[in-house]
Amino acid sequence: MSTPAAEHAVGRRDADGVAARARGLTKAYGSGETTVLALDSVDVDIARGRFTAVMGPSGSGKSTLMHCLAGLDTVSAGQVWLGDTEITGLKDRELTRLRRDRIGFMFQSFNLIPTLNAAENITLPMDIAGQKPDQKWLDQVIDTLGLRDRLKHRPAQLSGGQQQRVACARALASRPELIFADEPTGNLDSRAGLEVLGFLREAVDDLGQSVVMVTHDPGAAAHSDVVLFLGDGRIVDEMERPTAEAVLERMRHFSGSRPTAGGASDDVAVDVVLAADSDDAPLGASLDASLDTLDTFDKD
Ligand SMILES: Nc1ncnc2c1ncn2[C@@H]1O[C@H](COP(=O)(O)OP(=O)(O)OP(=O)(O)O)[C@@H](O)[C@H]1O
Fold first, then answer.
1. Total of domains in the chain
2. Cβ-proximal residues to 19 (8 Å cutoff; 6+ apart), any chain
3. Ligand 1: does its nearest atom lie under 6 Å from the Cβ of 160?
4. Could you tell me the CATH number of the domain that includes residue 243?
5. By the number of CB atoms within 10 A of the CB, which of 3, 118, 151, 213 ranks highest?
6. Which residues form the ABC transporter domain (predicted)?
């Protein structure tokens, strides 16, 4: 999945400002002796119109950072903004509306509703919100993602890659200010994963979207404009125009990396980069995941 940074244009950095921002962002889980400091006073700017990857060893705080930036989790201290809106301190109802109207989500598990076809899944968040999609934009997204002839198919009738493309279209449908993608290629074989990364890249380059992607895969991170490296709840490094090799090298030298259940995190990264193509993409989205989706796009 290695793509030299030079192969793609750098997203429109700085020109359009900051899509999300955090200052002194601190998140602690638990209390007393069992407190875990998942994020330790993080300052970060997520540039608008760029593709940002977040990497780091298991337990370094990647998901927590994404959840706090997306208003899916509360913070212990510090401030978070989406564009000019400070989201820390918003009430649940306001946060739900902000997520629904201004943020797109992609998850490793696709989170599609099994009983709805692709077209219905794509517009579900907007349907729930009572919003009418901009048909011209929607057509552009559907064609860019190559989903035109799959719109009537249900998730079980689609490959894993196609399901993730539907999830990508769903995230793009309302033209959100920022798309958060949590391991979007984690359940895909490397060919389908490459495709999805290519579409995220196009969403940034051709459609002007802003994307933040959490990944363990240096090959996936190489599709981004900039990689933020987390270690022990802090941003410890940043890499512009990453290549898979440079990211892998950086990960190897990580200090404070914590072992995962399956082995050291660096080994995971190496495995993913070296993994051979496989055609056995997992199919089907679980009902639990689908219910999570409904929660995420909750009505107000
Ligand atoms: N709900 C929770 N309760 C207690 N501790 C938590 C909770 N969620 C996360 N943590 C802890 O916070 C730290 C950061 O977790 P986080 O999931 O953000 O890491 P990560 O970098 O995304 O990890 P991974 O790569 O394994 O998904 C970890 O030590 C984790 O155990």
1. 1
2. 46, 47, 48, 49, 82, 83, 177, 178, 210
3. no
4. 3.40.50.300
5. 213
6. 20-257
For residues 152 and 189, what is the distance between their CA atoms, to the nearest angstrom?
A: 24
For the chain, give the mean pLDDT: 81
Q: Which protein residue has the closest C-alpha to ligand 1 atom 7?
A: 29
64 Cα: distance to centroid of ligand 1 (angstroms): 6
Supply the residue whose CA is at minimum distance from atom 2 of ligand 1: 29
| C-beta of 290 in contact with ligand 1 (< 6 A) | no
**In angstroms, what is the span from residue 235 Cα to ligand 1's centroid?**
15
Q: What is the bridge-based pairing of β-strands 211-214 and 51-55?
A: parallel
Cβ(38) to ligand 1 under 6 A? yes
Question: 222 is in which domain, residue-wise?
Answer: 5-296
Q: Is the CB of 76 under 6 A from ligand 1?
A: no
The interface pTM score, or ipTM, of the predicted complex is: 0.98
Q: What is the pLDDT of residues 217-245, one digit of tens each?
A: 999 999 999 999 999 999 999 999 999 99
Between the CA of 102 and the centroid of ligand 1 the distance, in Å, is 25
Q: How far is the CA of 228 from the centre of ligand 1 (A)?
A: 17
Nearest ligand 1 atom to alpha carbon 60: 21
Place of tokens 């190897």: 252
Q: What is the pLDDT at residue 276? A: 26
Tell me the C-alpha distance between 229 and 247, whole Å. Answer: 9
DSSP string, 258-295: --BTTB-HHHHHHHHHHPPP-S-------HHHHHHHHH
Tell the residue nearest (CA) to atom 13 of ligand 1. 38
For residue range 150-194, list pLDDT tens digits in order: 999 999 999 988 998 999 999 989 889 999 999 888 888 888 888
Burial class of residue 234 (count of CB atoms within 10 Å of its CB; 0-12, 13-18, 19+): middle
Residue listed under structure tokens 């400002």: 17
